[in-house]
Amino acid sequence: MKKIITLFFLFVSVTFIGQVKGKITDMKNNPLSFVSVYLDNTVTGATSNDNGDYILDLIRKGKYTIVFQFLGFKTVKKEVEISSFPFYLNVKLEEESVQLSEISISTKDNPANRIIRNVIANKDKNTDKFANYTAKFYSRGLYRIKDAPKKFLGQTLGDFGGGLDSTRSGIIYLSETISDIKFQKKPKNFKENIIASKVSGQDNGISFNRAEDANINFYENSVEFGNNLVSPLSTNAFSYYKFKLEGTFYDKNGRLINKIKILPKRKNDPVFNGSLYIVEDDWALYGADVSVTGAQVNIPVVDVLKLKQNYNYSDKNDAWVLISQSIDFRVNALGFKFDGRFSSAFSNYDFIPNFNEKTFTNEVLTFEKEATEKDSSYWITLRPVPLTTEEVKDYEVKDSLKVVRKSKKYLDSVNKKQNKVSFLSPITGYTYKNSFEKWSLSYDGLIKDLGFNTVQGFNTSMGVSYSKNINDKGNWWSAGVNVNYGFSEKIARPTFFFNKKWNNISRPRMSISVGVTTAQFNGRNPISKMDNLVRSLLRRENYLKIFEKEFAKIRYSEEIKNGIYFSSSLEYANRKPLFNTNNYSFARQSKTKPYTSNNPLDPTDYINTVFTEHSIASLKVGATFIFNQKYLSYPHRKFNIGNTKYPSLSLTYRKNFGASNSELNSDVFVANIRQNIDAGNYGKLAYNIGGGLFLKKKNIAFMDNLQANGNQLLFITDNQLSSFGLLEYYKFYTNDRYAEAHLEHNFKGSVLGKIPLINNLNFHLVGGVKSLFMADKKPYSEYSLGLDNIGFGKWRFLRIDYVKSFHAGIKNDGFLLRLNILN
Hints:
Elements: H1 2-16, E1 18-26, E2 36-39, E3 46-47, E4 53-58, E5 62-69, E6 76-82, E7 87-88, E8 91-93, H2 102-106, H3 111-121, H4 123-128, E9 132-146, E10 151-152, E11 155-156, E12 170-184, E13 189-199, E14 222-224, E15 228-230, E16 241-250, E17 256-264, E18 273-279, E19 284-293, E20 302-314, E21 319-333, E22 336-350, E23 363-367, H5 376-382, H6 389-405, H7 408-418, H8 425-428, E24 429-434, E25 439-444, E26 451-453, E27 457-469, E28 476-486, E29 491-501, E30 509-520, H9 529-539, E31 546-561, E32 564-576, E33 614-626, E34 630-634, E35 637-642, E36 648-657, E37 666-678, E38 684-694, E39 706-707, E40 715-716, E41 733-734, E42 737-746, E43 764-774, E44 777-792, E45 795-807, E46 810-819
Parallel strand pairs: 1-7, 1-8, 13-23, 23-34, 40-46
Antiparallel strand pairs: 1-4, 2-3, 2-5, 5-6, 9-12, 9-22, 10-11, 12-13, 14-15, 16-17, 17-18, 18-19, 19-20, 20-21, 21-22, 24-25, 25-27, 26-27, 27-28, 28-29, 29-30, 30-31, 31-32, 32-33, 33-36, 34-35, 36-37, 37-38, 38-42, 39-41, 42-43, 43-44, 44-45, 45-46
C-alpha cells in the first residue's frame, strides 16, 4: 500500500509540474553557467549549470514570457506558447555593450564616487525593504582535485571516495541541500531548516552547506568571505577603494544600470577586486562580480576566491533581492591542486512573515526527519540547477561504490592491506582494524611519547589499546594500558585506562584510570616534553620539574544544558619526590653550567625537595557557561558554534581531603572568563582573565598552590593567552589569592596595510598586555608589540614579539618567536 501511495503522488507531481529545458550559450556557442532563468514579473526561477543547461518548472501549459539574465550579457526575454512538456528552448546571449555617456566623460567629479555615496546613503532604506523574510534555499557544493598525490607524509591517500580517473583527477566532494530559511534584520537573526540533504557516496547524506554561510551582504560594513573584508559599500569604503564608472546599460525593464569598477588602494588590504552593478535612482545592487586573493583573506594557501551575485526586482516590496550566488575557489599547496564551486539559489520569498518570540532561538539549524533519505525523483522535481554530466556520473559511480564498500568482503580486503605490519611499526606504531565489526587494536610506537628529562633520562612509552564503536551516534568505548620507562632511573610506570562516550548530542563521557605516572609541579603543564627534550640536549636547560604519583582517578563530563558544561573528577594519589639521575647533554659541560636540580624552588639543591611524600584525595567540580550559545542540530549530532557577542565563564571548585597530613587539605575556587571579539575591519581582540581564592591559607604541598604559566624559551609553542612571555616557570605561586589578565589585539592589515612599501610585506601588527597579581607578591606586568603573518608567498606561519616586563622595580625585555599555523 505504501508503494502504491508513493507512486500515486509521484504521478500527480509529474502531471501538474512540467519542465522547460535547454542550453544557454554565448554568441560563440560557449556554454554559460549561472544564468538566471525565470518567468517575467517574478523574482526567482532556475539557474544554468556549468554546461549551460537549465530546467524551469512550470505548473501548467500556456503562454509565458521567460527571462534569461546574466551579468555582463544582455537580458533576453522569450515569449513562448507551451502546448506540451517537456518544452525545449535554447538561448544565445549577447555580451552587454557598456558605454560611458558624454556627461560622465566630461564631468570633473568622479561619477563612480557619486554613485557609491548614494548607495551608502540608501543602505538602510534598501535593506529595510527585506528586513524580515522567509525563503527557499538551494545549495550545491563541489570540490575537484587534479593530479592528486598517492601519498602525503608517508600516508597512502586512497582514491578520495572513488571519484578519481586514471590521472587521479576528479570530483572528491559533491553535495546538495534544500532548506527553508528565516531572516530578521533587527535584532539580527537567521534560522535554517534543512528539508533535504544529499552527499555523493555517503550513507548519511549530511551536507555541511549552510545558508547562513552563503548570506554574503555587501550592504554591511564588514563582509565575512573567507575572513572579514571591508565592503565596497562600507561607510569607510573610500579609505580602502577607488571607484571607476566603466559604463552603463539598461535592464529588461528600462532601468539604468551602472557598472562600477572597484580598485583596492592597497593590494594586501582585506578588500575585494572586481565590479559592482548599481541600479540608478534606486541605488541598490543589481549584481556583483568580485574576487579576493589568499593574501587579502589571510589564507595563504588559497590562490583566489571568486564571488558572483545576481539580484532581481521584486514589485511586492519594491526591492532588489538576491536570487543566485556562486563562490569559486582555487587552492594550490603542498602538492594538492583543488578547485570548486558553491552555488546557491533563493526562491519563494515571503517579505511579510509571521514571526513571533519563538521563531528564533539558539538553535540556528535543524534537519527534518528523513531529510537525508530523499530519493532521486524528489531531487529531480525540486533541484533548480540541473546536474552536469560529470555530476550525474559522480552520483552514479559513488552510489554504486557505496553499497560495495559497506560489504564485509570489501572492508576485510581494505583492512588486509591496512593491517600489514611494516619494518618501522615497532617504532612508529601499528593499528589492526576490523572495519565491519567496528573495532580496532592499536599499539603506540616508541617515538610517540619520546622525551628526555634529568630524572628519567631518555624515556618513552609503550601502549596497547582496544576501541569499539557501538553505533554512528557517538556511542563508543576504549580500554588499554600504557607503560612509561625511564632508561636512566630504570623504572617502568604502568597506567591502565577505560573511556566511555554515549552520544554526540550532550557528549557524556567517563574515564577511569589507575597506575603510576609522573606529573609537572604546575598542573597547567607549561612545558611540553618536546620543548624540554630540545632545550636539555642542545643547551643543558632542564626546565621540566616532576614528581611521581601512584593514583586512581575517575572523571565525568557532559553538556547538561545548551551552553552549560559540567565536569568532575575524583582522584586518590600517593605522591613521591624525584631526583636527578642523568646529566647527559649534547652541549659540553665545560661551556655551560651543569643541569639544575629537580627542585623547582631551589635549582642548586640536589638533596632536599619542596614536599614530603604523602597521600591525598582530590575532588574537582566545574562548570563552563557559554552564554547565549548558538548551535546546529544535525542528525545524531550537535555542533556548538558559541556566540562571540558574549564571553564564556568557567568556575571550578577543588577540595583536597583525606591527606596523610591534615595540614595538606585545602579548598580553592578558580574562575576564568575569556572572549574573542571580532573587530571587523580592525582585526580581532581577545582577552583571558582568571583568578583564584583559597578558603583558608595553609602550608599545603607545592603542587597544590595556584601557579601562573611562565616561559623561559625563545621559541613559543603554547597558547599566549594563558601564559606570560618572560616569567620564570616557578617564580609565582600562592596558597592565598591571585588574579591574572591577558589581552591581545591583532590589527590584521588595518595599521601596517596603510603604510607605503611596508604594506607590500603583508605583515600584521599585534599588541598585548598581561598582568599578574598575588596576595603575597608584588604585581608583575608585560607589554608586547609584534608582527604576525611573517613569511614568503603562501608560507606565512611565523610570528615575532618584543616583550618588556616589570616586577618589583626590575625591568626585563626580550624577543619571542612563535610558529603560528592558525592565524
